[in-house]
TrEMBL record:
Record's GO cellular component terms: cytosol; nucleus
Key words of the record: NAD, Oxidoreductase
GO biological process: carbohydrate metabolic process; glycerol-3-phosphate catabolic process
Residue numbers annotated as active site: K251
UniProt xrefs under InterPro entries: 6-PGluconate_DH-like_C_sf, 6PGD_dom2, G3P_DH_NAD-dep, G3P_DH_NAD-dep_C, G3P_DH_NAD-dep_euk, G3P_DH_NAD-dep_N, NAD(P)-bd_dom_sf
Residue runs in coiled coils: none
Residues at which NAD(+) binds: G29, S30, G31, N32, W33, G34, F61, F132, A188, R316, K343, Q345
Source domain of life: Eukaryota
The protein's name: Glycerol-3-phosphate dehydrogenase [NAD(+)]
Pfam families for the chain: NAD_Gly3P_dh_C, NAD_Gly3P_dh_N
Organism annotation: Pyronema omphalodes (strain CBS 100304) (Pyronema confluens)
Length: 392
């Protein structure tokens, strides 16, 4: 495309946005949590028509899917061959693969093309397993509005050979926009079934961003609350993006440890010990490597201790780690067998955090994180955990 037609296209885009005076929201991701968050966001865009366009685009990593032979809500005979997941979602208003049996609002529009999904979007909600975010950001480069604002619901940390960053920072840096974070004690299936839970949104944009057109409502804590809060999903908005992101990322390592001890049938005291040590390491890690991180975020907000508790009991990392011990199999084998395409985040986070600590000679200062990594690699046994985390 020539530079004048690119400029024309951008001008048309800006004119449409400015005329609308409302935010257009896109969710990038449609897994278990991506679909549950799309449901919440779509309920709220419909509930706040003065702030948001009702339609919410949900980007779907396209795949063919065959409906199971029976379904409580659908006549499966009409879908007897595999179909595109986006077609199924838009026809049945359900993400039949990643969030089955939950009706999605009809204003959620599943979209297989990333550029189409983000076109004209002023608020982007990133919700994909963390291993895919770099490739997604590369595909989004040049496709988004320069004044778009973003929120990351991703639980993981971005580790390279010599640095560590939050995914909100990575997204912001790669796309040249601001990105906050959402994280909490939020098992997706429970949230989607509208069982009560809390979450934490961190949003603290610097003053030098590309300004929003004056016609659009400023994106502030009030807009964040309007976008995510529901009667069954209580939102607290804070400024500590590092604390919120790290709580969600690091508790996945602890949840694996908790699954390991449950796999051995060691009971609640053992699990409480693992959780206590894990919480200390989460907080220490935040304070040691992220100067803006607040200690209280780990103890007072849903994204800290509450997420640790729920994940160490009912999360996928916990379940797969427990089964791997019970069955004597590798956790990756269990993940493949029981999660139907959903992805564990704790196994890669344990590896990535270990790489970061090892490079700095700090493995011994984080005995639980290190133990989980060594057990996953088969270099230590679950039975050795108490010795590995014993204090002097
Ligand atoms: N599921 C849950 O209960 C919760 C998950 N989270 C976090 O939310 C984030 C997203 O997780 P979920 O939505 O649960 O995802 P998921 O675990 O259900 O992952 C599957 C998703 O990955 C997509 N995918 C597969 N291959 C891909 C590729 N090559 N490129 C891009 N996408 C691909 C699939 O299409 C599907 O949408 C994670 O960081 C997770 O830790 C946070 C709170 C709760
Ligand atoms: O983050 C979660 C709950 O808050 C879900 O954790 P899992 O990915 O282990 O299921």
């Amino acid at each position: 495309m020539s530079s004048s037609s690119v400029a024309k296209q951008r001008l048309g885009q800006l004119t449409r946005i400015m005329a609308s005076r409302k935010h257009r929201v896109t969710v990038i991701g449609s897994g278990n949590w991506g679909s549950a968050i799309s449901k919440i966001v779509a309920e709220n865009t419909a509930a706040h028509p003065q702030l948001f366009e009702p339609e919410v685009h949900m980007w779907v990593f396209e795949e063919q899917y065959q409906l199971p032979s029976t379904h409580p809500r659908f006549d499966v005979s009409k879908h007897s061959t595999p179909q595109e997941l986006t077609t199924l979602i838009n026809t049945l208003n359900e993400n039949v693969k990643y969030l089955p049996s939950i009706a999605l609002p009809t204003n959620v529009i599943a979209t297989p093309s990333l550029p189409d999904a983000v076109r004209d979007a002023t608020i982007l909600v990133f919700n994909v397993p963390h291993q895919f975010i770099h490739s997604i950001c590369s595909q989004l480069n040049g496709q988004i509005l320069p004044y778009a604002r973003a929120v990351s619901c991703i639980k993981g940390v971005d580790v390279s050979a010599d640095s560590i960053s939050l995914f909100s920072e990575t997204i912001g840096r790669k796309l040249g926009i601001y990105c906050g974070a959402l994280s909490g004690a939020n098992i997706a299936n429970e949230v989607a079934a509208e069982k009560f839970s809390e979450t934490t949104v961190a949003y603290d944009p610097p003053g030098d961003l590309t300004p929003l057109p004056e016609e659009l409502p400023p994106v502030d804590h009030g807009v964040m609350k309007a976008l995510f809060h529901r009667p069954y999903f209580h939102v607290r908005v804070v400024n500590d993006v590092a604390g919120v992101s790290l709580g969600g990322a690091l508790k996945n390592i602890v949840a694996i440890a908790s699954g390991f001890v449950d796999g051995l049938g060691w009971g609640d005291n053992a699990k409480a010990a693992v959780m206590r040590v894990g919480l200390m390491e989460m907080r220490k890690f935040g304070q040691q490597f992220f100067s803006s991180c607040r200690s209280e975020t780990f103890t007072e907000e849903s994204c800290g201790v509450a997420d640790l508790i729920t994940s160490c009991n009912g999360g996928r990392n916990h379940r797969c780690a427990m089964l791997s011990v019970k069955e004597g199999k590798k956790i990756e084998e269990i993940e493949e067998r029981v999660l139907n395409g959903q992805k564990l985040q704790g196994t890669s986070t344990a590896r990535e955090v270990n790489m970061f600590l090892k490079q700095r000679g700090l493995e011994k200062e984080y005995p639980l994180f290190t133990a989980v990594y060594l057990i996953l690699r088969g270099e230590a046994k679950v039975e050795d955990l108490p010795k590995m985390i014993e204090r002097e």
